[in-house]
Amino acid sequence: MRAYHDEEWGVPERDSRALWEKLMLDGFQAGLAWITILRKRDAFREAFRGFEPAVVAGFGEEDVARLLGDARIVRSRSKIEATIGNARAYLAMRDAGEDFSDFVWGMAGGAPIMGDGVHLPVKSPLSEAMSVALKARGFKFVGPVIVYAWMEAVGIVDDHAAGCFRRTGN
C-alpha cells in the first residue's frame, strides 16, 4: 500500500483510457478492501485484455463466462457486465466527440481540487454530479462514493494529508 500511495494514489492522471481503467477497478472494489483489488490488478488487466475499451466493448457471453471462471479476479456478474457496458458507454462518448479525460477534468475545473489535508470525505457535491453525469451516459457502478474514491486515486481531488510529500504545494 505504501508504494501505491507514494507512486500512484493522487497523482493526476490525464490519459482517458487509464482514467477509465481506474474507474472500472474502483467499481470492482465496491464492498471490498482496495488492497484486494490492488493485489488482483495485474490479473484484472490480463483478464480484461489491457482494459482497452474497444476490446472490452466487444465482449460477449463467452467472455462473461470466462471472467466468471477466473479465480484471479473478483467474479461478480453484475460488475463484469457493468464493465463491458461501461466500455460501450466510453466509446459512445468518444464517438460523440466527448473525450473522457476532458469530460471528467472539465467537471473539476481542469485542475486538482485540494482537500483540507485533515478530513477524508467519502463523497462530495462534485462526485455526486459526476456520478449523475456518468449514469446519464450509460455507466454503472459509478455511485458518488465510488466516484469520489476514484477522483482521489486519479488526482482530481488531492486528499493527501497536510505535510505529505505528495500533497500539491508541499
Concise description?
Helices cover 56% and strands 2% of the residues. By secondary structure, the protein is mostly helical.
Write the layout of secondary structure elements.
Elements (H helix, E strand, L loop, with lengths): L1 H6 L8 H14 L4 H14 L5 H4 L4 H8 L8 H19 L4 H8 L5 E2 L10 H12 L7 H10 L3 E2 L12
Parallel strand pairs: 1-2
| Annotated CATH homologous superfamily | Hypothetical protein, domain 2
Number of helices: 9
Oligomeric state of the chains in view:
single chain
Number of strands: 2
| CATH top level class name | Mainly Alpha
Low-pLDDT residue spans: none
Distance between the termini: 21 Å
Largest sheet: 2 strands, parallel
**How does CATH name the architecture?**
Orthogonal Bundle
Structural class: mainly alpha
| CATH fold annotation | Endonuclease III, domain 1
Strand content: under 5%
Note down, in words, how this protein is organized.
This protein has 170 residues and is mostly helical. It has 9 helices and 2 strands; from the N terminus they run H-H-H-H-H-H-H-E-H-H-E. It has helices spanning 2-7, 16-29, 34-47, 53-56, 61-68, 77-95, 100-107, 125-136, 144-153, and strands at 113-114, 157-158. Helix 2 (16-29) crosses helix 3 (34-47). It is globular and about 50 Å long. The mean pLDDT is 94.
